[in-house]
């Protein structure tokens, strides 16, 4: 059943310059999706519109049967049921972790407030930090507090706008894995915005790809990897080598095999030691440069190699 219904949203900041174009997305209750797109593609604008914090030019947002009002229609913009978390934590610097999380609950009964804060401290693994000030926490811990505060009001929808981009890779990956488990336990519906596909996939396998304000493709990661709708969606997953003499046809570096004796000849121009393979830049007879993966790490710069691939791995648009 559709829970969050984003229907034909259009948005311009300047006349004629569409930031969101006819954007529609239907999300079931409790689903976690990752919204992926490059900088400037309209992701933050979309989240602010969903949260009722930004006016849309046309289109509607419904949370079940409740229409999300534009800020201009609402005395106090925003909705308790939909919480937005940004990269900047905006914690109260002179309040402890516990106080930061319980702050939105000031008008609630003491018993409820206490129980809710305990639950979140526990779920977020922050009990031992409860009396610390934000400046005594790591970036990841501070972001957990911000998420705890956003969750204190028991929102139905949590919108995460690149909240982990200031953290280092290891911190970020651990936090995403932890939070994903927590979101599943709470049954909260989540839209996670990122431009990093690895982060997106750690959170969920369900991707929504946005390009220049338009929804390009959505679905499971495997499905999009195997059948990308356009070059942009395909390139999110890996580099693409254009196949000479075949228009708009590409091959992924991971799908090219390297041989010492037969295949398409190429010369190794550059070699980079990456975590899982050596990345080779090779030059084809026509002068095209391709990226190739040498998984056995056996080829040297200057050597000649021969390339082969399965026609079924070619990607055509
Ligand atoms: N308040 C604003 N006034 C005018 N233009 C804006 C405003 N906010 C965003 N824009 C423009 O709208 C476009 C989309 O911006 P938005 O921040 O939504 O993209 P994004 O995908 O979230 O980018 P990023 O990943 O860099 O945060 C950009 O061209 C941006 O310059």
TrEMBL record:
Biological process, per Gene Ontology: quaternary ammonium group transport
Keywords: ATP-binding, Nucleotide-binding, Transport
Annotated GO CC locations: ATP-binding cassette (ABC) transporter complex
GO MF annotation, one: ATP binding
Domain ABC transporter: start-end pairs: 4-237
UniProt protein name: Iron(III) transport system ATP-binding protein
Source organism: Aquiflexum balticum DSM 16537
């Amino acid at each position: 059943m559709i829970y969050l219904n984003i229907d034909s949203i259009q948005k311009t900041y300047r006349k004629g310059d569409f930031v969101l174009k006819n954007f529609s997305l239907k999300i079931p209750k409790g689903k976690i999706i990752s919204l992926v797109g490059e900088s400037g593609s309209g992701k933050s604008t979309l989240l602010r519109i969903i949260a009722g914090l930004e006016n849309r030019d046309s289109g509607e947002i419904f949370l079940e049967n409740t229409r999300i009002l534009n800020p201009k229609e609402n005395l106090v913009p925003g909705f308790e049921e939909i919480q937005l978390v940004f990269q900047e934590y905006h914690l109260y610097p002179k309040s402890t972790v516990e106080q930061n999380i319980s702050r939105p609950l000031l008008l609630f009964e003491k018993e409820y407030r206490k129980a809710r804060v305990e639950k979140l401290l526990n779920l977020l693994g922050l009990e031992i930090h409860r009396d610390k000030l934000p400046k005594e926490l790591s970036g990841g811990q501070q972001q957990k507090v911000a998420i705890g505060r956003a969750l204190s009001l028991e929102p139905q929808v949590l919108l995460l706008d690149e909240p982990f981009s200031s953290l280092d890779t290891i911190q970020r990956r651990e936090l995403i894995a932890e939070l994903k488990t927590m979101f599943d336990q709470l049954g909260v519906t989540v839209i996670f915005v990122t431009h990093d596909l690895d982060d997106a996939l750690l959170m969920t396998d369900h991707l929504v790809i946005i390009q220049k304000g338009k929804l390009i493709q959505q679905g499971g990661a495997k499905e999009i990897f195997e059948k990308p709708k356009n070059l942009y969606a395909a390139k999110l997953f890996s580099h693409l080598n254009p196949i000479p003499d075949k228009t708009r046809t590409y091959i992924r570096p991971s799908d090219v095999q390297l041989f010492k004796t037969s295949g398409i000849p190429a010369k190794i121009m550059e070699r980079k030691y990456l975590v899982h393979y050596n990345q080779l830049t090779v030059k084809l007879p026509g002068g095209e440069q391709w990226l190739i993966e040498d998984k056995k790490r056996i080829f040297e710069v200057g050597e000649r190699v021969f390339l082969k691939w399965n026609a079924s791995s070619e990607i055509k648009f």
